[in-house]
């Protein structure tokens, strides 16, 4: 159909949500806006759906959720498994609870039992529920750290990992057969689903058993008992508040002050434009409160509580730690402590993404830990855990992380988990505090031992259909015009993860990259630095990742990182703000 025809169809049929009716009226006669909403459909991939709330095929609403869920139901039924079931949860975003209930109604109508969270829960709980309840799939309604106008729909396979490419393609294929307003979407009343036993609320026992598994990941049990660690915590109006505080109380962290304006769930995120622990603005209130109560540590989890950011006290100020720095400290803490107390397995394995700090390799080398590099996306870290599990070697896995503030210790879930990360960060802080060291001093010590590896990430937004085309052209152009140098550093090796090769520039020698294809370009530089560029898989953004290395000082490395970022932006033709 033409976009105007689709608009008219929705105007005539989208009558169940008053917000959508009003939305359609507002855009009447606005050809550009109608084309933006109806010119394409939200794409469904391994990360599920993510889009702006509103009316249209390119928006998140009850109709796109129903269509997606019917596609998932068809896919599950095609597997012909006995007693199919799905675990569903949601975060604090606008309409998250509604979308979860709509998904439950569709699945139940298709004869698929639904285990639904009675209240919002962190994303890793869905991964755990899938594994614990042995369901066929899982759904988490969330848009992670996006601005409040977004929502999303993440799918998990029966192993608790985010859905594979093959699974996502199969679901998308089923979706293409479905008329969003047709009778091929099955639907029953929510109460009817409950009364028939097809929709069941998840019991509190599951959440307690989840916390039991989280607590088992403690490296130095008892170290927090009697700790004087003073903590400020913010869930950023999201889903982490209850379980994060519960696990911290379990291990003995009791001096916790929660940022009051960000404590209660609120999908409008009224205190910050982006509820993202990577953004200093999101931590503004937390930093102010930390100064007021003289906290040792500020902890912030994102709305679906799968990522965590921290700030640590340095005399009379607070230092924001990057995702790389927090992950590096955690890995160093886990490996050094487990080696000291005799709990480090033989041939331990750590996993990181290709855009995560090269310093990780140096730490792994020191402790004889195998390091596996995977593509960006935590599903690839989960995949490595699965491979170890299939070889009956899952105990070898000690830690995995990505620079975008996602961490996981343990194999009880297959996604990043801010609950276990929060526990380990506080345990680590208490452990070093008992030795008279702050986390700032710990990080500085690591830099002195291994060199100053400074990592920078910047994102550049390209909104709308025109923006997506612009992103494609930027990636096409840099592939066709490989830079010879970046900020004066010669490019020594090029890795193209879409074309699956690495090439040494001086010799032209190529080696195959044995990873799934991904639109990522990486440039190794003289002196050990690196520049990487990739479009985001979940947002309309291009990301640039810089690694600057200096043996002189942190300030020198920081200066190099800024020059490299500017050079890379210039190469791509992108203006930095």
Q: Mind explaining what this structure looks like?
A:
The chain has 577 residues and is of the alpha/beta class. The chain has 3 domains: 36-202, Alpha-D-Glucose-1,6-Bisphosphate, Chain A, domain 3 (3-Layer(aba) Sandwich); 233-450, Alpha-D-Glucose-1,6-Bisphosphate, Chain A, domain 3 (3-Layer(aba) Sandwich); 452-572, TATA-Binding Protein (2-Layer Sandwich), CATH 3.30.310. The strands form 4 sheets. Strands 16, 17, 18, 19, 20, 21, 22 and 23 form an 8-stranded antiparallel β-sheet that branches. Strands 1-5-4-2-3-6 form a 6-stranded mixed β-sheet, with helices on both faces. β18 and β19 (501-504) form a beta hairpin. The mean pLDDT is 95.
Low-confidence stretches: none
Count of DSSP helices? 18
Based on secondary structure, the structural category is alpha/beta
Shape: globular
How would you describe this structure in keywords?
577 residues, alpha/beta, Alpha-D-Glucose-1,6-Bisphosphate, Chain A, domain 3, TATA-Binding Protein, six-stranded mixed sheet, 18 helices, globular
């Amino acid at each position: 159909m033409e976009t105007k025809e689709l608009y008219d169809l929705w105007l005539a049929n989208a009558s169940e949500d008053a917000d959508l009716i009003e939305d359609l009226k507002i855009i009447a006669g606005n050809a550009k806006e109608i084309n933006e909403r109806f010119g394409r459909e939200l794409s469904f991939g391994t990360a599920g759906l993510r889009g702006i709330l509103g009316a249209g095929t390119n928006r998140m609403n009850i109709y796109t959720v129903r269509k997606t869920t019917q596609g998932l139901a068809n896919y599950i039924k095609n597997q012909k498994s006995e007693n199919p079931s799905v675990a569903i949860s949601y975060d604090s975003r606008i309409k998250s609870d509604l979308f979860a209930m709509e998904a439950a109604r569709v699945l139940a109508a298709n004869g698929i039992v639904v285990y639904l969270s009675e209240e919002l829960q962190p994303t890793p709980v869905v991964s755990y529920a899938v594994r614990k309840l042995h369901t066929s799939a899982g759904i988490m309604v969330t848009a992670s750290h996006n601005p409040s106008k977004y929502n999303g729909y993440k799918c998990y396979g029966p192993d608790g990992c985010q859905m594979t490419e093959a699974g996502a393609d199969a679901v998308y294929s089923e979706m293409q057969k479905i008329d969003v307003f047709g009778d091929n979407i099955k639907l029953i009343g929510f109460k009817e689903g409950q009364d028939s036993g097809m929709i069941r609320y998840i019991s509190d026992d599951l959440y307690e058993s989840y916390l039991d598994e989280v607590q088992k990941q403690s490296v130095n049990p008892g170290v927090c008992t009697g700790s004087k660690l003073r903590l400020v915590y913010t869930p950023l109006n999201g889903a982490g508040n209850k379980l994060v505080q519960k696990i911290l109380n379990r291990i003995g962290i009791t001096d916790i002050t929660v940022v009051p304006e960000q404590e209660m769930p609120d999908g409008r995120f009224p205190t910050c434009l982006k509820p993202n622990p990577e953004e200093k603005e999101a931590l503004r209130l937390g930093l102010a409160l930390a100064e007021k109560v003289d906290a040792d540590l500020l902890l912030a989890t994102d709305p679906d509580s799968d990522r965590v950011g921290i700030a640590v006290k340095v005399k009379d100020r607070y230092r924001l730690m990057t995702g790389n720095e927090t992950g590096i400290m955690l890995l160093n803490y886990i490996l050094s402590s487990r080696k000291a107390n005799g709990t480090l397995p033989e041939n331990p394995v750590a996993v990181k993404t290709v855009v995560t700090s090269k310093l990780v390799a140096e730490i792994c080398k020191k402790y004889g830990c195998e390091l596996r590099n995977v593509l960006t996306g935590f599903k690839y870290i989960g995949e490595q855990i699965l491979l170890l599990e299939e070889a009956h070697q899952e105990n070898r896995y000690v830690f995995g992380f990505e620079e975008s503030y996602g961490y996981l210790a343990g194999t009880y879930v297959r996604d990043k988990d801010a609950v276990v990360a929060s526990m380990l960060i506080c345990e680590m802080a208490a452990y070093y505090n008992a030795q008279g060291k702050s986390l700032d001093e710990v990080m500085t010590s690591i830099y002195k031992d291994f060199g100053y590896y400074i990592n920078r990430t910047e994102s550049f937004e390209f909104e709308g259909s025109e923006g997506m085309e612009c992103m494609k052209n930027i990636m096409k152009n840099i592939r066709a015009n490989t830079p010879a140098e970046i900020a004066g550093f010669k490019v020594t090796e090029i890795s193209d993860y879409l074309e699956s090769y690495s090439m040494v520039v001086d010799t032209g020698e190529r080696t195959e990259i044995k990873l799934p294809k991904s639109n990522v370009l990486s440039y190794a530089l003289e002196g050990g630095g690196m520049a990487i560029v990739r479009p985001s898989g979940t947002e309309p953004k291009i990301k640039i990742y810089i690694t600057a290395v200096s043996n002189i000082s942190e300030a020198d490395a920081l200066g190099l990182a800024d020059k490299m970022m500017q050079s890379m932006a210039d190469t791509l033709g992108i203006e930095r703000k």
